[in-house]
Amino acid sequence: MLLRLSIVNYALINKLNIEFSDNFSVITGETGAGKSIILGALSLMLGQRADNLSLPDKSLKCSIEGTFDVSECDLEGFFSENDLDFDNTCIIRREITPQGKSRAFINDTPVNLNQLKELTSRLIDVHSQHHTLLLQESSFQLSVVDSVAGNADLLRQYKKTFAELNKLRKELSLLKETNQKAKTELDYLNFLFEELDKASLKSGEQFELEAESEIQNHAEEIKSRMIQASDLLSQNDDNIIRRLNEVMVHLQSASKYQKEAIEFEQRISACLIELRDIAAIVERRSEDISYDPARIAEINERLGLLYQLEQKHRVNSVEELIAIREGIELKIAGIDSLDQQITGLEKRIAEVDSELKRYATELSSKRKSVCGIIEDSMLQTVTQLGMKDAAFRVDISKLSEPGRDGNDRVVFLFSANKGVSPAELSKIASGGELSRLMLAVKSLISSRSLLPTIIFDEIDTGISGETASRVGNILQKIARNMQVIAITHLPQIAGKSNEHFKVFKFTDETRTYSAIEKLKQEHRIDELALMISGDSGSKAARQTALELLQNNN
């Protein structure tokens, strides 16, 4: 429920504060006094765009703030999901800077416009002439039926399932497309894998083969050099080991007289041990080395294959070829699993589609079950509004394919005159008839709606006299279930309200302002008399105004 509305620096409004009661309030005033300005400011607070906003004082920001009682609105989940502090009293504020930048706040926490709209859409229903035109749209008519049928939770589940089904179908389409491309590529991948797998690649193999190739290609020279080295070490008559043995003999003789010679002898002895070992190895190696043309051919063939594969795959090592082979193997395995994924996804789609059809069937059943209730209620209300010969019918037909709201198309059929067959509202109803029908719709769904507040703007278009009084009665009836605020120019409606606000203009030396005041009982008589006859001093008009207020009490 809207407790308080504050407007600062907006259009003709300098500063304005309105406190509302929880039942039926009206706002009246002369044409141009600023009623639409107040509604425009309220629309800004509800999240509408702030294009071309005129700030009276260019140095100050515009601020529209609403205080709401949300204790019975079941909004704790919204506040929790959006990380906002919940309190039974909620303050919503919209600010527009002189530079045109917009900011929104919920309980002093900055929020984006989508969050603002989501919250306010669950707090206030603003009914204007534009909303009356919505009555002609099938989607709005369907929402009316769902409201009466109490389909909110079921429809939410249906839409969730519908969205999931569409998502799964898109995934399936993409997966099939991927699978088709993969199947085209599979033969080539298999060829590449078999080629690499057949090569029996081993890590380090290339390095070893290149080293062995180097040895084979220089085998004769290596063997010759090794033989010469062996001769110098131990084989010829004047070899190094023999010479060192002679050195040992001399050092042994010297050590009898020079202790330092003992150390030299020991070091030479160690060298001799190492040289004898080297000499033996070199001799063996020289015998082992032999030129093998068959082995050279074998090495060259293997290296040629490796180089060819590396060039083909644009890499420089066997290790990289092994990594490519493993990657191709994973791709092939992935392609092989695509068929299984597609089968699994098709099974899931069938399950979700079955679930969706079950929800759609339940929705259709509940919608059809309330058609009679809607027809009776609508006829009862429009009859009160002066259309005694009206006919109204709810037609529900099945769609060829389920849509986001179910498998039904709802059409309201109406006729205002006896003997005329009901037809679609867009083809037969006038503006005045649409206004009365929309009021009947609002009256019907008000007791079933979770919205705490409804605001009517121009609900009295095209009506007067006794019909206007009946409209006031209907608004009173709606106000039993929710807070009602009506902007009106008819005294018959204004006299039915519990609270009466008057919008007026005044001027000072520099500019014109719009303001609003809550009228006391004697001032209500003045305002109603003025609305009745254009003269607040008219005795007849004042008597009529008094009767309107007394009848209301």
Shape: elongated
Poorly predicted runs: none
Rg to the nearest angstrom?
Answer: 48 Å
> Helical stretch count?
19
Strand content: 15-25%
Give the % helix: 55-70%
> What is the makeup of the main sheet?
6 strands, antiparallel
What count of domains describes the coordinates?
2
Rounded to the nearest angstrom, the distance between the terminal CA atoms is 23 Å
Give the helix/strand class.
Answer: alpha/beta
If you average the pLDDT, what whole number results?
A: 86
Strand order of the largest sheet: 2-1-4-5-6-7
| Total E-strand runs | 15
Structure commentary:
With 553 residues, the protein is α/β, with parallel strands linked by helices. It folds into two domains: 1-130 and 452-519, 3-Layer(aba) Sandwich (Rossmann fold); 152-357, no CATH class. 57% of the residues lie in helices and 18% in strands. The protein has helices spanning 35-45, 76-81, 113-120, 129-134, 138-149, 152-198, 205-217, 219-235, 240-254, 260-288, 293-313, 318-369, 371-384, 425-428, 431-446, 465-479, 491-494, 521-533, 539-552; strands at 2-10, 13-19, 24-28, 62-69, 89-96, 102-106, 109-111, 124-127, 391-403, 406-415, 423-424, 453-457, 483-487, 499-507, 512-518. The strands form three sheets. A six-stranded antiparallel sheet has the order 2-1-4-5-6-7. The protein has a six-stranded mixed sheet with strand order 8-12-13-3-14-15, with helices on both faces. Helix 6 packs antiparallel against helix 12, helix 9 (240-254) runs antiparallel to helix 10 (260-288) and helix 11 (293-313) packs parallel to helix 12. The mean pLDDT is 86.
